[in-house]
């Protein structure tokens, strides 16, 4: 068990100028499950592989448990990794796969068998110990890959999109099991995913990366309610936040067609001190509602999810059409083609032209 | 109308696949027939082998006895066979021992300029052996290696090494990168990574490579006849020693050729058992 620290760690792939990960500084306390999330090419996997020792750290350092491991080979880092494609040894049985690391450490056979059996029990793999990976289902292989990691009792777990090869239902189920397992074992975990729902549901804290640069690291709740910039605002949340360009600045507040958006006091205060210009306004679908007054628009799509529904409304804004997504409770009577009005109950996020958040 | 068209289409496709099947059988039989005839001739009396082709005859092992027990001429069967076994097995083992690290260095952790290295390996095969035989012969003579097994072991190793490196490189590069990374993280050192993870996965490729080396070395004639015409000579030379200048020898030669072919067929059969596909299945996804 250990804390993990990145200190200005950069990775520049040979033959490129732009760092895949740029000056990453990140503290991960003991026992935390930290999720690295971002679109493809954001450097999240590279960051993980730098911690694993599979990727060279060009600048900066990486620490595990206060020890500088920047130049330590993966063999000596006492970490375990679950790969996206599981990377099970095809020539070995499940038992041998799970016991391989212990064998390398020279753990006696009896203890090895005992620890493998214990991990197999936790993961419901006992009946399959003598099978080869090719005779397992996708979900079972995933569990073997997990088993191979937990048998080791390593200082840190690294997980590189471990659920992305499972079907949707199994993925949701495994997600909770995994989070539960991590909490029980209390092992510091770095988890990479491109799926922001996975990130939000699993992470104690979530680090959002874009183009190799850390955008924000916070608890999921904070990330959702206080995105530090436009990218995080648009990336976190499903369906995505409505982002609209609007004229703002000065003391006029912000208007969306006929609708005046309710601004937080702090935001209004900060905005008043700024030059008028084109700002980006963000409102989450659940902070908009269909109402008797507000901005008029026409319904284009209704997504019924049972407990809630998302109504896509085309409004006119700055002389062009604009699509807003509005969340409605439960079932809705609204249909495509209906003329509706949309009002906003806030909070409203405002981003400066450079993408930065304004105000609280 | 459309249904008729579809039915006709299916019929046509069936006819085509039938004709293709027939053609491949015909071609296979045409290729196989000389071998079949050779084996058959080995069981005949000389007189039967040399007259009109006969399918029905009294089979006899006499020719096999003759060719394996004869001592006149240069070379006995037993001696030639043991020479071949030594030259082939030792050279093949040497080739694998040298080619495995080379393939690792070219495929898994490519050295700088690995393409040039690879080209260098194959370029050693550009020179026709016949053009190199004089210097080879002189060097062998100077080193007192003429008519020894050792010279063939050295040359067969050199002859097969480039091919083995090329083949193993392509098998090695099919090993999923993540498996090696997983082994690294699991704490396996280089040797453990190679013996526990890489080699079991490339085993079929290893078997195929070894088989080709065995075949090429077993069948090699030119170097053997030039450098080892007397002692240390191999099975192909022994086969030709059954050609006599007088009298009939077709049945004897057939028997000798059949005996020379058997070990290769056996090696092929053994290697095939290792060459099962899909050994790496289940590794990823």
Describe this structure in words.
The complex is a heterodimer of chains A (360) and B (285). Chain A has helices at residues 44-52, 94-105, 109-122, 138-150, 168-185, 196-202, 220-225, 230-235, 265-272; strands spanning 4-11, 21-28, 33-37, 59-64, 67-68, 79-82, 156-160, 188-193, 205-210, 213-218, 242-248, 255-256, 259-260, 277-283, 288-291, 295-304, 308-317, 320-329, 339-344, 349-351. Chain A has a six-stranded mixed β-sheet, sandwiched between helices. The radius of gyration of chain A is 24 Å and the shape is elongated. The two termini of chain A are 36 Å apart. Chain A is α+β, with helices and mostly antiparallel strands and 360 residues long. Chain A has two domains: 4-231, Rossmann fold (3-Layer(aba) Sandwich); 239-351, Nucleic acid-binding proteins (OB fold (Dihydrolipoamide Acetyltransferase, E2P), Beta Barrel), CATH 2.40.50.140. Chain B is an all-alpha fold and 285 residues long. Chain B folds into two domains: 1-34; 64-274, MetI-like fold, CATH 1.10.3720. Chain B is built from twelve helices and no strands. Chain B has helices at residues 2-42, 46-50, 62-69, 77-107, 114-123, 129-142, 149-172, 177-185, 190-219, 222-227, 235-240, 250-274. Chain B is flat. The two termini of chain B are 46 Å apart. The chains are: A alpha+beta (360), B mainly alpha (285). Chain A binds chain B through residues 52-54, 73-77, 79-81, 83, 85-91, 100-101, 104-105, 132-136, 138, 141, 148, 152, 165, and chain B through 176, 178-179, 181-189, 192, 196-197, 200-201, 278-285.
Summarize the structure.
Chain A has helices at 44-52, 94-105, 109-122, 138-150, 168-185, 196-202, 220-225, 230-235, 265-272, and strands spanning 4-11, 21-28, 33-37, 59-64, 67-68, 79-82, 156-160, 188-193, 205-210, 213-218, 242-248, 255-256, 259-260, 277-283, 288-291, 295-304, 308-317, 320-329, 339-344, 349-351.
